[in-house]
Amino acid sequence: MGNRDMPEGRPRAEQSAGDGVHGAVSVADEENPFADPGVPPHEHRIQDIDERAAKRSERAVALLFTVSMLATIGFIVSYLLIPNDKSVFVFPLGHLSAMNFALGLTLGVALFCIGAGAVHWARTLMSDVEIADDRHPIEASPEVRAKVHADFRQGAAESGFGRRKLIRNTLLGAMALVPLTGLMLLGGLGPAPGTKLRHTLWAKGKRLVNMNTNQPLRPEDVAVGSLTFAMPDGLAEHDEDFQNEIAKAALMIVRLQPDDIKDKRELDWSHQGIVAYSKICTHVGCPISLYEQQTHHVLCPCHQSTFDLTDGARVIFGPAGHALPQLRIGVDSEGYLQALGDFEEPVGPAFWERG
């Protein structure tokens, strides 16, 4: 409101004082074209004049902090008790992981209730008196520092933190429990792999099954110069852990002329020229699927790492770090190809160098 809107014959400062406006006010003039309207009159809240209303607000804040504590406990219980593979239907989102849904819901409620409780506390119970203060240099004088300390102590006293024990205790409880959610999430990194990466489903007596026909392989099923992919007997695509297991156990079967095999161990671990090597490239774990019949080289399609199957599957080109692991094979009493043990080194990308 400009000066010309003011009633004539009454100074601005006098009008402000008479209307109950507190704080410094100024009149617009040529040097200061923008007048300082001052601070509007303070209006008391119902909690300031009615202790019963203040108690209701106190109980509401305490309830929010208590709900936060219960939600945090729910987060921990959900993490410990809900299976990883359990799903739940949530409209309209569809099927979701039950654990993820419970963790997100409980953590969201815990954090929201702390924030909502703090906001409700500040708006209804803490002092809301506005104080106008003149600007001052950045460097605080001893007097200003003393005033800040005094204001802080006054604000602490007006907040009721020391007097309203119910709010204080429930807030401390909520703030103490919420960090536990972070500690629980550390467990989501998963258990230590232990020796799982060093072992596959292959074991002595485990038959080699054609991945295309799901039938056990006989030596006569593998022609010279052909490439066949195999998996352990008993592993099926509908199994829950199929992807994890096939990523370690996938085999490629190639039949060579025994005279073409240069590496003695490769020859000893083969059967009638049939060799079994891991299908997983030792660079970044891509499945190897390209075979050069004339040279007996296999090629990874991702980064062109090339392995010589006549010489222990050693790397002859590309970024792969080491040769493909070989599986020792033989035949069982019924004439089917079988493993004579597990791989002697971990399959996959660069794991052997990392230990």
TrEMBL record:
UniProt entry tagged with the keyword Zinc: no
Keyword entries, A-Z: 2Fe-2S, Cell membrane, Disulfide bond, Electron transport, Iron, Iron-sulfur, Membrane, Metal-binding, Oxidoreductase, Respiratory chain, Transmembrane, Transmembrane helix, Transport
Chief location category: membrane
Residues that span the membrane, as ranges: 61-82, 102-122, 171-190
Signal peptide: none
Compartment(s) of residence: Cell membrane
Basic and acidic residues bias spans: 1-13
Pfam families per the UniProt record, alphabetical: QcrA_N, Rieske
Domain Rieske intervals: 243-338
Start and end residues of each stretch annotated as Disordered: 1-22
Membrane topology: Multi-pass membrane protein
Source taxon at top rank: Bacteria
Xref: InterPro entries: QcrA_N (IPR045603), Rieske_2Fe-2S (IPR017941), Rieske_2Fe-2S_sf (IPR036922), Rieske_Fe-S_prot (IPR014349)
Family: Belongs to the Rieske iron-sulfur protein family.
Alphabetical list of PANTHER family matching this protein: CYTOCHROME B-C1 COMPLEX SUBUNIT RIESKE, MITOCHONDRIAL
Main function: Iron-sulfur subunit of the cytochrome bc1 complex, an essential component of the respiratory electron transport chain required for ATP synthesis. The bc1 complex catalyzes the oxidation of menaquinol and the reduction of cytochrome c in the respiratory chain. The bc1 complex operates through a Q-cycle mechanism that couples electron transfer to generation of the proton gradient that drives ATP synthesis.
Listed name of the protein: Cytochrome bc1 complex Rieske iron-sulfur subunit
Species per Swiss-Prot/TrEMBL record: Streptomyces rubradiris
Gene: qcrA_1
